[in-house]
Design a protein that fits this description.
By secondary structure, this protein is mainly beta. It has a single domain, classed as Ribosomal Protein L9, domain 1, CATH 3.40.5. The chain has one helix at 55-58, and strands at 7-10, 16-19, 22-25, 31-34, 37-40. The strands form 2 sheets. The chain has a 3-stranded antiparallel sheet with strand order 1-2-5, with no helix packed on it. Strands 3-4 form a two-stranded antiparallel sheet. The N and C termini lie far apart (38 Å). The protein binds FE2/S2 (inorganic) cluster (FES). The site of FE2/S2 (inorganic) cluster has 12 residues, from α1.
Amino acid sequence: MENQNVKVTALPNGPLMVEGNVTVVKKDGTAENKENKSFLCRCGHSGNKPFCDGSHKKNNFQD
Ligand code: FES
């Protein structure tokens, strides 16, 4: 049987790194399947929420 474990890691001053196969449901109800690794915004500045688009760097997100 396939391992279904998913690991979520908060990267320092950056997004949540999700390792594993997941389905991300966006606020409009559409779903996107992500395989292996994905990055979710936790700074609030991404133009592609809920995914990280790198905007945390230019906004100097610190946690
Ligand atoms: S964490 Fe990368 S854009 Fe928000």
